[in-house]
Design a protein that fits this description.
One of its GO terms (biological process) is carbohydrate transport. Its EC number is 7.5.2.13. By secondary structure, the protein is α+β, with helices and mostly antiparallel strands. The chain contains ten helices and 20 strands. It folds into two domains: about 240 residues, P-loop containing nucleotide triphosphate hydrolases (Rossmann fold); about 120 residues, Nucleic acid-binding proteins (OB fold (Dihydrolipoamide Acetyltransferase, E2P), Beta Barrel). The protein has a six-stranded mixed β-sheet, sandwiched between helices. Strand 17 and strand 18 form a beta hairpin. Helix 3 runs parallel beside helix 5. It binds adenosine-5'-triphosphate.
Amino acid sequence: TTTAPDATDDAYLEIDGLTKVYDDGDDSVVAVDDMNIDIADGEFLVFVGPSGCGKTTTLRSIAGLEEITEGQIVIDGENVEGQAPRERDVAMVFQTYALYPHMSVSENMEYPLKVRGMPKDERDRRVRESAELLEITELLDRQPKDLSGGQQQRVALGRAIVREPRVFLFDEPLSNLDAKLRVHMRTELNRLHNQIGKTSIYVTHDQAEAMTLGDRIVVMDEGEVQQVAPPQQVYDQPVNSFVGGFIGSPQMNFFDAEVDVDAGEIRTDAFTLPYPEWMHDRIGRGGTFAAEFGIRPEDISVEGLDEDATAEDHATAEVVVVEEMGSDFFLTLENDGVEYQAIVEPNTNLQRGDRISLQFDLQKCHLFDDDTGDSLV
Ligand code: ATP
């Protein structure tokens, strides 16, 4: 093996310089570009990013389903290069449940153990225990065609759990379920992970799924890792405007801005706000510079009608759309042709066409570099 034990620290699975290039003759795609991530034993790590960013390729590389171009995957101190998927002792759960239609639920779950030549009584015990864990005991004699989508997904999970693998790999396992069931299964996966405690790597394009499941989230774009951090940190301190915009729904508002340090102002086409002291302390630039200003919809609140505006960190806006969501209202606002969104407390007095005064939570706003998109704060 190529890795000294002290180099691994307490990483259970290491992705070291993973690069995958698909080369179809004259066309080559860098699907994953020099990825380096250490995953702790028992961690739930979620890869998230837009379609085509390289999530599935990463997962398939760990599983041994793709030959990688450069780098290595180290599981429990062992470089798994050249090992077939079966030898890696990892279990993959797919978006399509891939159940065997001619086998019952218990036969489906038992099958991977049978293939490995496990004795019958051990097979039975594992199927029984996994079925209890997944609350599908009463379904064991059914055929897959007689199950709902959610039940089929549980059986697919069961088929991975019975193997007691050292790592679980999930490829968008919930994306074929309807919205309500998806949220329910998300909670179930959280519960299962707490009970089983095995290292899990999960791929999704759904940022809400990533936020709720991950101990840490890996945000990817175009084959490159953008940020690796716990969910709240990714949300509060995005390293660049891509991450700021990708995580959070409705998404962060962005404005082209000019920061005038001497005047102490951030000027956008929609409004002018004071340049907060804490930003100045961190950024340290003088003069005037261009930047991208970001603020999340929930960090904008309604102060009242326009005439109530007083302090300087206020701006006025016209209400374009009011969406009543029950626990909050989504507002689409406009100033001088620039539209943006706010999530505010329910206020049935608000109407389309109102001119209102807004308050911005300047502790929570962001400035990004105009060229690179990197966070300046
Ligand atoms: P999605 O969410 O749509 O599944 P993803 O983030 O999982 O996307 P990948 O499937 O890993 O992305 O694809 C990454 C890039 O590699 C894409 O540009 C894709 O077109 C390309 N790619 C994937 N598989 C192959 C292949 N077998 N041959 C050539 N290019 C491929």
